[in-house]
Design a protein that fits this description.
single chain; Immunoglobulin-like; 3-stranded antiparallel sheet; 15% helix
Length: 139
């Protein structure tokens, strides 16, 4: 005959384990990700005089997004914190599902040579980063 844990003991253990995981999560949340970095999803559009790139970066402050445009390459980098619900430090939390990517991200896109690097524009609104890449010789 097996002996089970009394319900109160199990609940207390569950709270303690959740608190320990929460402390580890706050210490270095990136270790829970299966990869060193993730890639945000993008849409790329070819318009008559430019390329338009839309990057899904919900939950970021635009000041933390690093965008670099070089000959032949667009690179987007940054770090997105794990989204946690507001709670007091002593309030236990158990993660049931975690699908939102977090931690360091990086995305590189090959660009055609005819992009005019001096006229690139971007804006961030509603969690979407838009990058406009004018073409020197549209055709």
């Amino acid at each position: 005959m097996s002996r089970g844990f009394p319900s109160d003991d199990f609940d207390e253990m569950s709270v303690q384990v959740s608190q320990m995981i929460g402390k580890l999560w706050q210490w270095h949340y990136g270790d829970f990700s299966p990869k060193d970095s993730w890639s945000p999803t993008i849409n790329v559009y070819r318009l008559p005089r430019r390329l338009a790139v839309c990057v899904d970066l919900a939950g970021l402050d635009k000041q933390t997004i690093d965008v670099r445009v070089e000959t032949g390459k667009l690179a987007i980098r940054g770090v997105r914190p794990a989204p946690d619900p507001p709670r007091s430090p002593e309030e236990p939390m158990r993660i049931l599902t975690m699908e939102i990517d977090h931690g360091p991200f990086r995305r590189e896109i090959k660009l055609p040579e005819q992009v005019d690097l001096s006229r690139v524009e971007s804006h961030y609104d509603g969690g979407l980063l838009w990058i406009y890449l004018p073409l020197r010789n549209p055709g």
